[in-house]
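Session log. Operator J.P. requested a structure for one protein chain; no other inputs attached. Running the standard single-chain path with token output.
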Amino acid sequence: MKMKAKTIIAGISSAICLALSGTLHAGTLNGAGATFPAPLYQQWISEYTKISGGVKINYQAVGSGAGLAQIRAKTVDFGASDEPLKKEELDKDGMIQFPMTMGAIVPVVNLPDIKPGELKLTGPVLAKIFMGQITVWNDPEVSKINEGLKLPDMKITVVHRADGSGTTWNFTNYLSKVSEDWSKKFGCAKEIAWIEGTVGGQKNAGVAAMVKRIKGAIGYVESAYAFESKMTYTQMQNKDGKFVQPDNDSFQAAAENADWKNAPGFYMVLTDQAGEKSWPIMASTYILIYKSQPDKEKIDSLLKYYTWCYDSGANLAKKLNYVPMPKNVVDLVKEAWQKNLTK
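Structure written below.
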């Protein structure tokens, strides 16, 4: 991938500054939410504005929790979240949600002399690390699944999201599936009561920065942040017992098993999917808009933009290691627009 991480962060920051400055005008679409898809959204926005005929799009990468709060307060035109809402909740809010893309959550570590993709982890071992039950890198349970790899006698520092996060929701959803102990003690949520001694980072970029700064650290980030920042990512054992690398092939394999047609309100959780090649910690990311849209021109502009993202943005998504939505799912989304939106 050619784009630099600092370009991503600069793009996100400029969008936030523009939105907060009050420099808004006709033809402006404002959104807020998940940082998980932010690298892709910034690229889409950059390309689309070149051919949009004057439509401007501001996206504030503030986290899924804040994005949901802003769309519910109607201070933005669209919200973005990695935690899907169930249909009952959507109906109560008078909103619809639709998936924009799929991506992976990747464990990242800061270990001397360990190269990206060398360290292997299983779901249960990962859960024990984040619960504080495994505290050093040469622990026998870690060493057992990494035969031949020299692991340091170094303290493990857990780094997590400090803000309400859809990335955390999907990560803890996965841990809840692979560890009964985790499920009982911590569960699945956007915010977790982390154990003492852990370190919090704001948004995906903040977690990446903290892991890079602390020797012996482990954290979880969206794959684009891991790859663009040249971090040491891990292999993961999947549901079929195979160790897989985080790459386009394993991401696509996991995404292919999703049954979107039978997902009410497009509610879909992609963690711990079956398949020998499947990456186990996948997530969909969603856009939320209101069913009732009094400003016909604005909703037409919004749907035109998202149609372009689906139809023309797939290659950009692949370059950043996201999985584009399949055509049959895009067709279902467009049908939902026609059926549910009133202008």
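Operator note: The chain has 14 helices and 13 strands.
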